[in-house]
Amino acid sequence: MDFTRRETLALGAGAAAMAVLPFQVQAAADEAMAEFTGGAEAAMGGIELTAPEIAENGNTVPVSVSAPGATAIVIYATGNPTPGVATFNFGPLAASQAASTRIRLAGTQEVVALAKMADGTFAKASATVKVTIGGCGG
Amino acid sequence: MASGVKPRVKVPKTAAAGEAITIKTLISHKMESGQRKDKEGNVIPRSIINRFTCEFNGESVVDVTLEPAISTNPYFEFDATVPEAGEFKFTWYDDDGSVYDTSKKVAIG
After folding, report:
1. CA distance B60 to B50
2. Do A95 and B80 touch (CB under 8 A)?
3. Can you state the percent helix, strand and coil of chain B, rounding each to 5?
4. What average pLDDT does the segment B71-100 reach?
5. Looking at beta carbons, which residues of chain A come within 8 Å of B23?
6. How far apart are CA A56 and CA B70, in angstroms?
7. Res. A25 pLDDT band, cuts 50 70 90
8. Whether the Cβ atoms of residue B103 and residue B42 lie closer than 8 Å to each other
């Protein structure tokens, strides 16, 4: 089978697109995070993200976040088709700035939690979750 | 999805004034993500609960924005302070405009 110049170029372009795709997903997550922080740097620490190391079923992955002194916590799944997962806004009657929920993960990826503190600074925590069966149907 | 949605909430019946209590909520909802396809390859349209709020006597405890990445039958667990006797009000907002709510009374004891 001979490749013409045109076919070779098309194949090369396809391969390049495949290689770039994961970075685009990552970029979408970074963009979403930058939108929340307004471009400010988020310090590590001050927030705790608990997620399982290995999740057999990506459809229900239990995660919990805790950030004392936070006004809002956002969870991102960096490898999902849409990176946003949930935003928790804590009111004056929240006894602790902590919450647990169950999320969907499309595959093995990094889960990131960002907290907005009462003084306007941001805190960040992340955890890598290995997923055996993806949770986005596809 | 207006049928078969049943909110469930677990709140202690009594609490000491100023005590922090743990609240667990669950609502049955299929949370269609808008990513899945049916047998013919058509995308199943998104249908999720996009917001959940919990209030105590009109004051906010937590206000959650949900994205399609929240699992079927959304579950939340969080802590609330009970300053006086009153009522917790839980509200879920569906994509289709439906609002589901339930409330629980807490006595000081």
Report:
1. 17
2. yes
3. 0, 60, 40
4. 92
5. none
6. 17
7. low
8. no
A91·B79 Cβ contact <8 A: no
Closest to A48 measured CA to CA, from A129, A112, A1: A112
Tokens read off for A136: 């986005």
Q: Are A121 and B108 in contact (CB under 8 A)?
A: no
B56-72 residue pLDDT tens: 999 999 999 999 999 99
Count of other CB atoms within 10 angstroms of residue A118:
11
Radius of gyration of chain A (CA): 19
Q: Indicate the pairing of strand A70-77 with strand A109-117.
A: antiparallel
Contact A82, A66 (CB under 8 A): no
The share of chain A scoring above pLDDT 90, in percent, equals: 49
Contact (CB, 8 A) for A89 and A9: no
CB atoms within 10 A of CB A96: 16
Chain A CB contacts of B67 under 8 Å are 82, 84-86
**Mean pLDDT over all residues of chain B?**
90
β partners of residue A114: A74, A124
Query: How far, in Å, CA of A26 to CA of B2, rounded?
Result: 36
For A22-51, b/e burial (b = at least 16 CB within 10 A) is eeebeebbeebbeebeeeeebeeebbbbeb
